[in-house]
Design goal:
The protein has 250 residues and is α+β, with helices and mostly antiparallel strands. The chain contains seven helices and eleven strands. The chain folds into two domains: 64 residues, no CATH class; 174 residues, no CATH class.
């Protein structure tokens, strides 16, 4: 549910209790004795029958019971060429079919699963696309999408996962801090966060150990992970040099 942005307070019109958080709105509905939360599209409620979730732009009327199940008719349709991958908890990520296996793999990691849900609830989609040779992934908040280089289509699923986790961290940072990422400190901070998440994902998928690399990309993951674990300050300093021009432009 995120962190509170305000104290909970009553709605004088119906007696409900409301509280804005960093990810949505928490509500206690007095008329139905129900606690609810919504991010604006996805909804969750604790009912007499247990936890239920549904999707749609509108919540039930204040005096109405939440639905007992998540009606499929209220699920948003995935854009053409994408499929909606259920992440649990009412979150559904629109992804290209050829990235579905990578999404499923990431959904079972502690490092990336929360980032997947954050991106899904914010309406981001995931797909392959043509990018510059030195760019493996790209997120665009204006279009709410994450693009993975088509170059990675020939790589194993496990190799695409850290790249996507890297971009998902950027998405999460953007949702949480917005324009601050356009400043030099913000730009450098999100790059540090992204590489840290990339490394954590790679290590988790390897069972906590760096596996012998089978290609240049895996060799790069190993080098990054070793640098972060042995000298995180030095790694952050090197990022300052590598991303000097990119972050200065922000």
């Amino acid at each position: 549910m995120g962190d509170p942005l305000e104290c909970e307070h009553p709605n004088s019109e119906n007696g409900d209790t409301l509280q804005q958080t960093t990810t949505g709105l928490a509500t206690y509905r007095q008329s139905t004795n129900t606690s609810e939360f919504t991010d604006g599209w996805n909804h969750w409620a604790l009912t007499r029958g247990g936890l239920v979730a549904w999707s749609g732009s509108d919540a039930p009327a204040p005096s109405a019971e939440p639905p007992t199940t998540a009606p499929s008719a209220q699920q948003p349709a995935a854009p053409a060429g994408l499929q909606c991958i259920d992440l649990g908890g009412g979150a559904c990520l629109n992804s290209a079919a050829d990235l579905a296996d990578t999404v499923s793999l990431l959904a079972h990691t502690s490092a990336a699963a929360p980032l997947l849900r954050t991106a899904a609830r914010a309406g981001y989609s995931l797909k392959f696309g043509d990018l510059p040779l030195d760019v493996l992934g790209l997120f665009r908040p204006s279009r709410k999408d994450v693009t993975v280089s088509s170059f990675l289509q020939a790589y194993p699923t496990i190799d695409r996962a850290p790249v996507i986790a890297h971009e998902l961290q950027h998405v999460s940072d953007w949702i949480g801090h917005g324009a601050l990422l356009d400043t030099t400190p913000g730009c450098l901070a999100t790059e540090t966060n992204a590489f840290t998440t990339e490394s954590a994902t790679w290590l988790e998928l390897g069972g906590g150990h760096l596996k012998p690399p089978t290609n240049d990309l895996e060799r790069e993951f190993n080098m990054i992970s070793q640098a972060i674990s042995t000298d995180p300050g030095g790694f952050a300093s090197r990022l300052t040099v590598v991303y000097h021009d990119q972050c200065a432009a922000g």
